[in-house]
Design goal:
heterodimer; A: alpha+beta; Penicillin-binding protein 2a (Domain 2); Beta-lactamase; 2 domains; seven-stranded mixed sheet; 18 helices; 32% helix; elongated; B: mainly alpha; 4 domains; two-stranded antiparallel sheet
Chain lengths: 601, 312
């Protein structure tokens, strides 16, 4: 108790906790008024202050409450996009053809670098770059300048160990194609944003891309995460893995063998298809020119597509297999049927020639095939007529999509039977006047190899989702085009092409029974709307009695060499030899059919 | 406060009054303990003087000592408990906060570790993929003096041979036509650097523009580095780019391809280079297979080496 309040009391305060009561007393008249007035004053003052506080409280909490709260959250809350790792593209053995890895872009703040030359001297060797070039990048007044892009994290760690001020890095995902241009025209490539721009990368963009995730967290002014704050993570959904039917080794070998031959023949381009006829699996789909998907920008734009699917050509003599198959399957002839073949024949208003002039030959159907006689083929085809030939060509898939759904695929064409002119029938019989792509023509031979059953070609084996579920792209049901017996007879005829007296002797593989057909077709050019140059091709299979592989080689516009047998044959032989080893296909050991090519009488 | 009780000079009163006095004393006591109670004093004093006069006549020197002592004791205890609770509470909060912060640190540490391991894993699988690439393997095999077999030969379990073995011929010095990714990777960094130098990039660097620039300036820096030279030389020997008019033939349909960017026209040195055949160097003919039938067939990354076939 304070002393003024006891002043009126008669007795002194003996037990005051503040010690002895003061004896001296003053007689101020304020004694009674003071406590009440002061109390009132303090009460009012407190009330006023508290009302101000209260008012402010209401203003902040009730009036501006929501806006301020969201503003605060906005200040603290950070949304971070978690990029989804793009799915890999694998070959049939699971070897990577396309991968996504994290790389670093090294960035310099030029204002923080006092001695660019010294920094460059340290940085250059680590980056494997010329210090002079690096020094140029470090000199200036810019706060953000790329010193190097696409550096591996290991290299960045080495840079980090140098403790260079002003050198930082940013992390980016990079699409890597470890095998370089092996199968690049199938795999395709990605653009700067990481999305597919060609090939499988483009066709399966939605499956490969995955779904990006989001991380939401509260952070302090220094950028540090507030541990007790809101922290929500929606994990990124990685992209699915696309597994192709391509065998990387065969693909590489085929691509190189083709590239060498195209260079040797000074040709414009070339394609090669390796197929398993029983499943329709495309084991290799190579073309020249090609490109390196790691640097798609450096390649000519026309090399980026898939020539074997997007480019159609008139098949020429390789198409005679279909004509013969139709004739044999219709029972109009057997491989032993005899024909008197002159070197030219007039049909409609046109005279059709064989490649070389010759006296009248006595050829069997097998002989016509082995010597690739146009006149003989026309004669054989006339035994069944145009309408039936047309229906067989359609059954072999001419003019129909391959079912691969590859971006930019061209189905080729054949004029509808009703539109045929008098010269159409003989022309189409020996393979001009209709167009196919490389895979379609390989598929025709695969059909004969597979006992007359046409199986849809396959390029994508399966799609493996991140959760482990597997999606197999649907294929059409196989169709029987010709009987197994017809197919077997035709394979024997193909074998005679490779045998002595045939046009494809350069394709023979010692120890194996090989069958195939040469083709030397005039090439129709879109740029001049005329026929210029040739397409030299060879399509074959092995082993003939039990075919497990079909290889189709086409070389466009060769300048050195001309015939399909001499240009396509050796490539076929090399690639088939290699593929037989890789696929562990032993020789069957059976004797060759040795059909008679000519007859006497 | 005791002073109030002692000052009471009134006559004796009923027990109710006595109680009232005790209460007042207690109130006083509280008032002393808390200065805020000063406001109540004038009212209390009035009560006290009136009631206390009566009380004094009947029982003077009334003292209520013990409750006050108890009060004091409990007050001390109370303070002690409150302080203790406060300290304990603070310590607990401190411990909890420390634990949470520690957890956050552990999480970020582990995340960093995970990121490092992921990077390592990626780097390793990338280098494996590069080393296992068919052309890299082929080159290594050639470096070891191996050449591809030209005749597939198989060995039956009984030792008999399927196929016609013959000596393999060829050159081990044949360069692969497809360039290896290793060349690309090492050249890449400086290619990028070169593009920036050549184009004089603004501070607000646009990666898309930079990449377009990179394409244009592709040949700018290539000859400066060792690995790039190799790549350029190899590119020159690639039949991919034959001659100037080879590109004309490539006018066939590529509608399925979205062209990557403008300025993608091929101006690199390799496109102008004449086509070189890989066989122009003197082939070293090896006849090491003459005495053996077991050909190491193929140079694949698979197991297509010595091939055994099941007995038929």
């Amino acid at each position: 108790m304070s002393s003024p309040s006891t002043m009126r009391r008669t007795a002194p305060r003996g037990a005051s906790s503040r010690g002895p009561v003061r004896k001296t007393r003053t007689t101020h008249p304020l004694v009674l008024v003071s406590p009440r007035g002061r109390g009132l004053f303090l009460l009012v003052a407190t009330a006023v202050i508290l009302s101000i506080f209260g008012g402010r409280l209401v203003q902040v909490q009730a009036v501006q409450g929501k806006a301020l709260a969201s503003q605060a959250i906005e200040q603290r809350l950070k949304k971070q996009t978690l990029p989804a790792p793009r799915g890999a593209i694998l070959d049939s053995a699971g070897q990577p053809l396309a991968l996504t890895v994290e790389v670093r872009n090294i960035v310099a703040d030029q204002t923080k670098i006092t001695d660019p030359a010294a920094v460059a001297a340290m940085l250059g060797p680590v980056l494997g770059a010329d210090p002079d070039v690096v020094a140029q990048r470090l000199t200036g007044t810019r706060h953000f300048m790329y010193v190097a892009k696409g550096v591996t994290p290991a290299t960045w760690n080495q840079v980090l160990d140098l403790r260079l001020p002003g050198i930082t890095s940013e992390s980016v995902a990079q699409r890597v194609y470890p095998a370089g241009d092996v199968a690049s025209n199938v795999v395709g490539f990605t653009g700067d944003g990481g999305s597919g721009l060609g090939g499988v990368e483009y066709a399966f963009q939605s499956q490969l891309a995955g779904t990006a995730g989001v991380r939401t967290y509260e952070r302090g002014p220094g950028g540090n995460v507030i541990p007790t704050g809101a922290n929500a993570v929606t994990a990124a959904q990685p992209g699915a893995t696309v597994k192709l039917t391509i065998d990387r080794d065969i693909q590489f070998f085929a691509q190189r063998a083709l590239a060498e031959q195209v260079a040797k023949a000074k040709a414009d381009s070339g394609t090669i298809v390796v197929m398993d006829p029983r499943t329709g699996d495309i084991l290799a789909l190579g073309m020249v020119p090609t490109f390196d998907p790691n640097h798609p920008g450096t390649a000519d734009a026309s090399s980026l597509g898939n020539r074997a699917l997007n480019n159609v050509f008139e098949p020429g003599s390789t198409s005679k297999l279909m004509t013969m198959a139709a004739v044999v399957n219709e029972g109009a002839a057997t491989p032993y049927s005899t024909f008197k073949v002159r070197d030219s024949i007039k049909r409609g208003d046109k005279l059709f020639h064989d490649h070389d002039p010759h006296p009248v030959q006595k050829l069997t159907l097998a002989g016509i095939m082995a010597e690739s006689s146009n006149v003989g083929t026309i004669q054989a085809a006339e035994r069944i007529g145009g309408r039936r030939l047309y229906s067989y060509l359609k059954k072999f898939g001419i003019g129909l999509p391959t079912g691969l759904h590859f971006p930019g695929e061209s189905a080729g064409s054949i004029p509808a039977y009703d539109d045929w002119s008098p010269t159409s029938f003989p022309t189409i019989a020996f393979g001009q006047g209709l167009s196919v792509n490389a895979v379609q023509s390989a598929s025709v031979y695969a059909t004969i190899a597979n006992d007359g059953v046409r199986v849809q070609p396959r390029l994508v084996d399966e799609i493996v989702n991140p959760d482990g579920s597997v999606v197999v792209p649907p294929t059409t049901t196989p169709t029987q085009v010709v009987t197994a017996q017809t197919a077997q007879q035709l394979r024997s005829m193909l074998e005679s092409v490779v045998g002595s007296g045939g046009t494809g002797t350069m394709a023979a593989i010692p120890g194996y029974r090989v069958g195939g057909k040469t083709g030397t077709a005039s090439e129709y050019r879109e740029d001049c709307h005329c026929y210029r140059g040739v397409v030299a091709s060879f399509i074959g299979m092995a082993p003939v009695d039990k075919p497990q592989l079909v290889v189709a080689v086409s070389i466009f516009n060769p300048r050195v060499g001309h015939f399909g047998g001499e240009l396509g044959g050796p490539v076929f032989k090399r690639v088939m030899t290699y593929a037989l080893q890789v696929r562990k296909i032993p020789p069957t050991g059976t004797p060759s059919a040795k059909l008679p090519l000519t007859y006497k009488g | 406060m005791s002073a109030t009780a002692r000052n009471l000079d009134g006559v004796a009163a009923d027990p109710a009054a006595e109680l009232e006095a005790v209460e007042l004393a207690y109130l006083d006591e509280l008032a002393d303990a808390d200065h805020a109670a000063d406001f109540a004093r004038p009212v209390g004093t009035e009560y006290a003087t009136r009631g206390a006069r009566k009380l004094k006549a009947a029982r003077p020197n009334l003292r209520m000592v013990s409750p006050l002592r108890a009060e004091r004791a409990s007050r001390g205890m109370f303070a002690l408990i409150v302080t203790a609770l406060l300290i304990v509470g603070m310590v607990v909060i401190l411990v909890i906060n420390t634990t949470i912060a520690q957890g956050a640190f552990t999480v970020s540490e582990l995340q960093a570790q995970q990121a490092t391991l992921t990077q390592q894993e990626q780097a390793l699988s990338r280098s494996i993929a590069a080393a296992a690439a068919p052309d890299a393997l082929e080159q290594k095999a050639r470096d070891m003096g191996m050449i591809p077999s030209e005749s597939p030969v198989f060995l039956n379990p009984d030792g008999s041979i399927v196929g016609k073995p013959k000596p393999a011929r060829g050159s081990t010095s044949q360069p692969p036509l497809l360039r290896t990714p290793a060349d690309v990777t090492s050249a890449e960094a400086v290619d990028n650097a070169a593009s920036g130098v050549a184009q004089g990039l603004p501070p607000d660097y646009d990666p898309a523009a930079a990449d377009a620039a990179q394409r244009q300036a592709q040949s700018f820096n290539e000859p400066r580095l060792g690995p790039s030279v190799t790549a350029a030389q190899r590119a020159a020997s690639m039949p991919v780019t034959l001659s100037a008019d080879a590109a004309v033939a490539a006018s066939t349909s590529t509608s399925g391809v979205v062209a990557p960017a403008t300025g993608a026209t091929n101006t690199s040195a390799s496109s102008k280079a004449p086509a070189k055949l890989p066989h122009t160097s003197t082939p070293k003919v090896t006849s090491q297979w003459s005495d053996t039938v077991i050909a190491v067939s193929g140079l694949s990354s698979g197991d297509a080496g010595l091939t055994a076939v099941p007995a038929r």
